[in-house]
């Protein structure tokens, strides 16, 4: 058990190192310059620009910049934003809540709707409902998130005027839970659509596979009620592959939030990331990258832990 | 014996396949099982023996164009007989696992991998006998001891993955017998096991039968096993019963040409090693159920085939002597030699 943990931790460190080097390189190789915003200011001289460059630490070779940045990272100093000079971690945590609310709601919706669709389809394989849901899933998967976002806005906000088209609450209004939920509704649904389709396909296959197992025939031969067979025997086993999916879906939701947050001007990490890229705000962009990477690796470790809890076969082999 | 506890009459099972012709898996199978009796159903793969068993318990995949017809009268505790093939779902569930239970071929895959052994035994008792969880768990330990597992108190908390194949088959038997059924259907219960373990499981089944008095339908293709356990043999060939006789009678003087060669294909130590004799084989294959031959379905492989006699019409199952039925128009000639 300790061996597994240590090797997992080592792998996590290697993953993060690769992410940091790749991210750092790509970001600095991309065309554009953080100083561009200053260069256009009237009366800005070369000398002044050089001073700013020095302040930002951009006047030393790239490997040195990387090492300085990594050293800061290890000691809890993630740098400061080029734009407003706020500490990176403060900015990230300032935006994290909004993203977690959106992604969390979306993932609950997607899991619930997708898993229900999948279970329904698996128990009625080949039925009209099953076929319809297969088609629906493929359609949902083939259409990009931003398209749904724009269509939903044009339909529900512009045409029907039922729901707001963006922001986390009415601008200038006082905060109220109802107002917040109305703003959350559209982006959460849009973000959930793609994962709902994935959940539905995945659940259907997982349940269908369990249904074909010998031990389900045994359960029927025992004269158990269909209800008990469904929950105790089928779903309990189908849950295992679904835990894996939950772990994989988590980072996907964060990247999906990138698009959704932009479309709906949701003040979360995703939009912050796009903004920081636009301004070549290296410290913030790298900070978000590393933060997501850490979340993703923790997600996979958590998945493994959950798996071990749910599957006695894994516990046994580790004894 | 006070009449059979199970009378199967003209059982037929047909599977529809998308587009193609229907597949008649079992055609008009009839046989009886007496209380406490062991009936072996033998035959090659695709002879319809497993489908017969699954049909009796209503375990064939529902829908999908499966058609079951005929009658299977089952007598529970001296009550009036019920027709298993006509029972509504709920009534059938009350019989499954309680009055009739089943042990399957592969113990490695027949137990639920994520539930403890104790729970898998206890749930039958809770469903059928209305025991509380605590009572059922205690009973589960008792059953594990009865099927010869050591440390039953520990094994209840184990998962199937922690047990060997032989132990798992003992657990399957414990599950099947927990509610003291009147009839146990064992579908090749030893086929997937090592030879030494096979012998142990057979001995266990016989011991428990002597103790609890249930009847057993023993499905197998292993004639050696049949001789050890059965009171009566039902030989099936391409979906039909072709011979039905008491075990000694059937093994000593089989009448149907198929049974005659089938019983000779069993290797014995003397025949194979000492006399260095080649094992007899039956030429040809079991016919495809969609294209069964005209007349006697065995005639293309039969050494006693007579053109015009055997390939004209399907012979019916006729009584050759007391308790011995055979499906062959030429059995008398053949028996005379």
List keywords for this structure.
heterodimer; A: 319 residues; mainly alpha; MetI-like fold; 2 domains; 13 helices; 78% helix; B: 337 residues; alpha/beta; eight-stranded mixed beta sheet; four-stranded antiparallel beta sheet; 12 strands; transmembrane helix (chain A); MetI-like_sf (chain A); membrane (chain A)
How would you characterize the overall build of this protein?
The complex is a heterodimer of chains A (about 325) and B (about 325). Chain A is built from 13 helices and no strands. By secondary structure, chain A is mostly helical. Chain A folds into 2 domains: about 1-75, no CATH class; about 95-320, MetI-like (MetI-like fold), CATH 1.10.3720. In chain A, helix 7 packs across helix 8 (about 175-210) and helix 7 (about 145-160) crosses helix 10. Chain B is about 30% helix and about 25% strand. Chain B has a domain at about 110-180. Chain B has helices at about 50-55, 90-95, 115-130, 135-145, 150-155, 165-175, 195-210, 225-230, 245-250, 255-265, 270-275, 330-335, and strands at about 5-15, 25-35, 40, 65-75, 80-85, 100-105, 185, 215-220, 230-235, 240-245, 320, 325. Chain B: It is found in: Cell inner membrane. Chain B: This is ABC transporter ATP-binding protein.
Describe this structure in a few short sentences:
In chain A, 78% of the residues lie in helices and 0% in strands.
Q: Into which percentage range does the β-strand content of chain B fall?
A: 15-25%
- What is the CATH superfamily of the largest domain in chain A? MetI-like
**Name of the CATH class of the largest domain in chain A:** Mainly Alpha
Tally of separate helices of chain A: 13
Q: Tell me the distance between the termini of chain B.
A: 35 Å
Described by strand count, sense and barrel closure, the largest sheet of chain B is:
8 strands, mixed
| Unreliable sequence segments of chain B | none
**What is the string of helix and strand elements of chain B?**
EEEHEEHEHHHHEHEHEEHHHEEH
The CATH architecture of the largest domain in chain A can be given as: Orthogonal Bundle
- By DSSP, the count of extended strands of chain A is 0
Quaternary organisation of the protein chains: heterodimer
Family (chain A): Belongs to the binding-protein-dependent transport system permease family.
GO biological process, one term (chain A): transmembrane transport
Subcellular location (chain A): Cell membrane
Domain ABC transmembrane type-1 (chain A): 96-307
């Amino acid at each position: 058990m300790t061996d597994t943990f240590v090797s997992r931790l080592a792998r996590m460190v290697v993953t993060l190192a690769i992410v940091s080097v790749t991210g750092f390189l790509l970001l600095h190789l991309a065309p554009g310059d953080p100083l561009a915003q200053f260069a256009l200011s009237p009366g800005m001289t070369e000398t002044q620009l050089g001073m700013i460059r020095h302040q930002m630490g951009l006047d030393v070779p790239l490997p040195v910049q990387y090492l300085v940045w990594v050293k800061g990272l290890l000691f809890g100093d993630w740098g400061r934003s080029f734009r407003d000079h706020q500490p990176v971690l403060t900015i990230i945590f300032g935006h994290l809540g909004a993203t977690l609310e959106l992604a969390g709601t979306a993932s609950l919706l997607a899991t619930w709707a997708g898993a229900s669709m999948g279970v329904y389809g698996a128990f009625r394989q080949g039925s009209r409902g099953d076929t319809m849901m297969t088609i629906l899933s493929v359609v949902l998967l083939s259409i990009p998130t931003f398209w749904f976002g724009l269509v939903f806005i044009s339909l529900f906000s512009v045409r029907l005027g039922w729901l707001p088209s963006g922001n986390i609450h009415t601008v200038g209004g006082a905060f109220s839970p109802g107002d917040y939920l109305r703003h959350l509704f559209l982006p959460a649904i849009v973000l959930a659509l793609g994962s709902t389709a994935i959940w539905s396909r995945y659940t259907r296959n997982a349940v269908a596979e369990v249904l074909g197992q010998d031990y389900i025939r045994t359960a029927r031969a025992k004269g158990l009620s269909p209800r008990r067979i469904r929950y105790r025997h089928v779903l309990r086993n189908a849950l295992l592959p679904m835990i894996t999916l939950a772990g994989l879906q988590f980072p996907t939701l964060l990247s999906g939030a990138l698009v959704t947050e932009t479309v709906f001007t949701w003040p979360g990490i995703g939009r912050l990331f796009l903004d920081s890229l636009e301004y070549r705000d290296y410290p913030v962009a790298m900070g978000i990258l590393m933060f997501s990477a850490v979340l993703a690796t923790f997600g996979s470790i958590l998945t493994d832990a959950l798996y071990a809890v749910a599957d006695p076969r894994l516990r046994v082999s580790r004894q | 014996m006070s009449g059979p506890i199970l009378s199967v009459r003209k059982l037929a099972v047909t599977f529809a396949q998308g587009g193609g012709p229907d597949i008649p898996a079992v055609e008009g199978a009839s046989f009886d099982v007496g209380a406490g009796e062991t009936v072996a159903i033998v035959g090659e793969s695709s002879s319809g023996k497993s489908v017969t068993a699954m049909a009796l318990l209503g375990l064939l995949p529902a829908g999908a164009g499966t058609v079951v017809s005929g009658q299977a009268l089952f007598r529970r505790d001296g009550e009036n007989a019920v027709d298993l093939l006509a029972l509504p779902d709920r009534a059938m569930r009350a019989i499954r696992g309680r009055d009739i239970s089943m042990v399957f071929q592969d113990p490695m895959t027949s137990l639920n991998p994520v539930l403890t052994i104790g729970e898998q035994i206890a749930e039958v008792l809770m469903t059928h006998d209305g025991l509380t969880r605590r009572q059922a768990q205690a009973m589960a330990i008792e059953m594990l001891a009865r099927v010869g597992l050591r440390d039953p108190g520990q094994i209840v908390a184990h998962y199937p993955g922690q047990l060997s194949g032989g132990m798992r088959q003992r657990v399957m038997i414990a599950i099947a017998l927990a509610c003291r059924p009147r009839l146990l259907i064992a579908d090749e219960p030893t086929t997937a096991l090592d030879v030494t373990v096979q012998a142990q499981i057979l001995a266990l089944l016989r011991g428990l039968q002597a103790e609890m008095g249930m009847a057993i339908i023993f499905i197998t293709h292993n004639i050696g096993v049949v001789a050890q356990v059965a009171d009566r043999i039902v030989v099936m060939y391409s979906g039909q019963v072709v011979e039905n006789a008491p075990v000694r009678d059937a093994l000593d003087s089989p009448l149907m040409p198929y049974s005659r060669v089938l019983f000779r294909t069993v290797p014995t130590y003397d025949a194979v090693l000492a006399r260095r004799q080649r094992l007899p084989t039956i030429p040809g294959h079991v016919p495809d159920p969609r294209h069964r031959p005209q007349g006697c379905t065995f005639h293309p492989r039969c050494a006693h085939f007579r053109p015009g006699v055997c390939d004209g019409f399907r012979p019916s199952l006729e009584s050759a002597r007391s308790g011995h039925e055979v499906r062959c128009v030429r059995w008398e000639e053949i028996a005379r030699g």
